[in-house]
From TrEMBL:
Family: Belongs to the sulfatase family.
InterPro entries: Alkaline_phosphatase_core_sf (IPR017850), GAG_Ulvan_Degrading_Sulfatases (IPR052701), Sulfatase_CS (IPR024607), Sulfatase_N (IPR000917)
Domain of life: Bacteria
Domain called Sulfatase N-terminal: residue spans: 39-303
Keywords: Hydrolase
UniProt organism field: Echinicola arenosa
Region listing for Disordered, in residue ranges: 453-476
CDD domains per the UniProt record, alphabetical: SGSH
Name of this chain's protein: Sulfatase
Family annotation (Pfam families): Sulfatase (PF00884)
Lineage, opening ranks: Bacteria, Pseudomonadati, Bacteroidota, Cytophagia, Cytophagales
Length: 476
C-alpha cells in the first residue's frame, strides 16, 4: 500500500512539473512572439520638465497620477539623460540619433544639417505610419522630419488627436509622437498649489515671488499629466494591446541651474516605458541611457534597419530586464541660445562623478529668465536681487549663477545637488585628469569645434538686460 501511494505521488509530481514546464515555455514563447511583432508606438514628450518635479521621482507636493500609473505598468529609468539642455539641440538629437556636434543643431533654434537624415525614415521604410501632434521637433521643424501627418498646434492635444483619428482611416503599424509644451514658460497664471506649500531646491532663494512662480509651474506640470491621461486612454483603445509607450522630457525646467546648464537639474530627465508582455510592470533600472538611444531602441524593437554610424544604440535588453548596465559614461553639450545665453559647456558623467568644462569661464552665464524677467517666467529674479543685497547666502547663490570657474567636479553620491566643486581637491586629481582626457577625446571624435556662436558678456562687465538684447539685435 505504501509503495502504491509513493508511486502515485511520484506520478502526480511529474505531471505537475510537466504542466509547469509547459506553462513556462508557453509564456516564454508568447513573450518572444510579442517582442517579434511590430508594436504600435506612442512617444509622449513634455517640455522643460525637471526629473525631480514628478511624484514618480520623489516629488512630494506636485501631483502626477498618470505618470504614477504608467510607472506601475512599465519600467522607470532612474538615470536617463538628454544630449543637450535646450529644446532644439535636444529634439534634434532625439530624432537623428546623433549628438549636436555631429547633426549640426548645436545652439537653440537650430535644425540638423540638410544632409542629416531623421530616423523617422527608417520606421516609414518598415511600414509604419507616423504622426506628430504638438511640439515634437523644435518650433516649425515637424515638417522637416518626414511625418505622414503633423498637427503643430500645442494646445488641446487630446481634442486634436481624437478629432483626427476619429475621421481618418489609419493602417498599422502606427507610431504617434505627442509633444506637450507644458511646463515650458510662460507658466499659467493659475495656482492649483499653495505658494506656501511648494518645495524649493536648496540652491533657490526663498522669496514670495519664487514660491508663486513655483506654484504656477507645478500647476502646468499637473495639467500636462492630466491631458496625457486622456490622450493615452484614447490611443490605447484605438491601437489595441501591443503598444510600446514612452514618456520623457527634453530637459530640465527653466529655473536657475537647470535648463541651459549641465547640472543634473538640466540634463537628467524622466523616462518611463510601458510595453505589456515585454517590460515588467513596476520595474526600475539604474542603467544610464541617453536621448540619442531612444529612436535606435524603437528601430530595434520594430525590426527596422538601424544606421551603423549613430551615436545612439538600442537599450532593448534593459527593457527586457536582461541587464541593468548600458552606458558607462554620459556626455552632454550646450552651446548657447542666441544673445540670451552665450555660454558653451561640455560634461562627462558616470554613475558617481561629473566633470564640467566651461569653455568661456570669463563670461557671464545668463538666459531668458534673468534677462527679460517676464511674469510667468523669470520675474522672481527681482526678488533674488533684493534678497542678495542684504543676505550673504543669497548673494553667494546669485554670484554662483552668473560666474563659474573653468572646471567643475562633483561627487554625485555625496553631493547630488552639485553644490561643492571639488575641482581643486588633491584627493580627486587622478579621477579628474582621466575624465578630462576622456571628455576631450570624445569631443575630438565628435568633431566638436568648441565654437562660441556669439559674443559673450564679460564677467567683469554689466549684466545684460532687455535693452542690451534690443541693441544687439539692432547691431549696436
Amino acid at each position: 500500500m505504501t509503495i502504491k501511494t509513493n508511486q502515485s505521488r511520484l506520478v502526480y509530481f511529474r505531471a505537475q512539473m510537466m504542466a509547469m514546464l509547459l506553462l513556462f515555455f508557453r509564456l516564454t514563447f508568447t513573450l518572444e512572439l510579442k517582442a517579434q511583432e511590430k508594436p504600435n508606438m506612442i512617444v509622449y514628450l513634455s517640455d522643460d520638465l525637471g526629473y525631480l518635479d514628478v511624484s514618480v521621482y520623489g516629488a512630494e507636493v506636485v501631483k502626477t497620477p498618470v505618470l504614477e500609473k504608467l510607472s506601475k505598468e512599465g519600467m522607470t529609468f532612474n538615470n536617463a539623460f538628454v544630449a543637450s539642455p535646450s529644446c532644439a539641440p535636444s529634439r534634434a538629437a532625439l530624432l537623428t540619433g546623433l549628438m549636436p556636434a555631429r547633426n549640426g543643431a548645436e545652439v537653440n533654434h537650430a535644425f540638423p544639417n540638410p544632409d542629416i537624415p531623421y530616423l523617422i525614415g527608417q520606421l516609414k521604410s518598415n511600414g509604419y505610419s507616423i504622426f506628430a501632434f504638438g511640439k515634437v521637433a523644435h518650433y516649425g521643424g515637424n515638417e522637416k522630419c518626414g511625418f505622414d501627418f503633423h498637427h503643430d498646434e500645442q494646445v488641446n492635444l487630446y481634442q486634436n488627436i481624437s478629432q483626427y483619428f476619429d475621421s481618418t482611416q489609419v493602417e498599422g503599424p502606427v507610431c504617434v509622437f505627442v509633444g506637450d509644451r507644458r511646463p515650458h514658460v510662460w507658466w499659467t497664471e493659475e495656482m492649483d498649489y499653495s505658494p506656501n506649500e511648494v518645495d524649493l531646491p536648496p540652491y533657490f532663494i526663498d522669496t514670495k515671488a519664487t514660491r508663486e512662480h513655483r506654484a504656477r509651474y507645478y500647476t502646468d506640470v499637473s495639467g500636462m499629466d492630466n491631458e496625457m491621461g486622456q490622450v493615452l486612454e484614447y490611443l490605447d483603445k484605438m491601437l489595441g494591446e501591443n503598444i510600446f509607450t514612452l514618456f520623457t522630457s527634453d530637459h530640465g525646467a527653466q529655473w536657475p541651474f537647470a535648463k541651459w546648464n549641465l547640472y543634473d537639474a538640466g540634463i537628467r530627465t524622466p523616462l518611463i516605458v510601458k510595453w505589456p508582455g515585454v517590460v515588467e510592470p513596476g520595474s526600475e533600472t539604474d542603467a544610464m541611457v541617453s536621448w540619442v538611444d531612444i529612436l535606435p531602441t524603437m528601430l530595434d524593437i520594430s525590426g527596422s534597419d538601424i544606421p551603423n554610424d549613430l551615436d545612439g544604440k538600442p537599450f532593448t535588453e534593459v527593457l527586457k530586464g536582461n541587464t541593468h548596465q548600458f552606458r558607462d559614461f554620459i556626455y552632454t553639450t550646450h552651446s548657447g541660445d542666441g544673445n540670451f545665453n552665450v555660454y558653451p559647456i561640455r560634461s562627462i558623467r558616470d554613475k558617481r562623478y561629473k566633470l564640467i568644462i566651461n569653455l568661456v569661464p570669463d563670461a557671464l552665464h545668463t538666459n531668458h529668465s534673468d534677462i527679460l524677467r517676464k511674469d510667468g517666467a523669470g520675474a522672481y529674479w527681482d526678488s533674488w536681487d533684493e534678497e542678495a543685497a542684504h543676505n550673504p547666502l543669497a548673494a553667494a547663490i546669485v554670484q554662483r549663477y552668473f560666474v563659474r570657474p573653468e572646471m567643475e567636479f562633483y561627487d554625485l553620491a555625496n553631493d547630488p545637488n552639485e553644490q561643492y566643486n571639488l575641482a581643486d581637491d588633491a584627493k580627486y586629481q587622478a579621477i579628474i585628469g582621466k575624465m578630462e582626457s576622456q571628455l576631450k577625446s570624445w569631443m575630438e571624435e565628435q568633431g566638436d569645434q568648441e565654437k562660441v556662436y556669439l559674443k559673450p558678456y564679460p564677467a567683469n562687465g554689466p549684466k545684460p538686460n532687455a535693452s542690451t538684447i534690443d541693441k544687439r539685435k539692432n547691431g549696436q
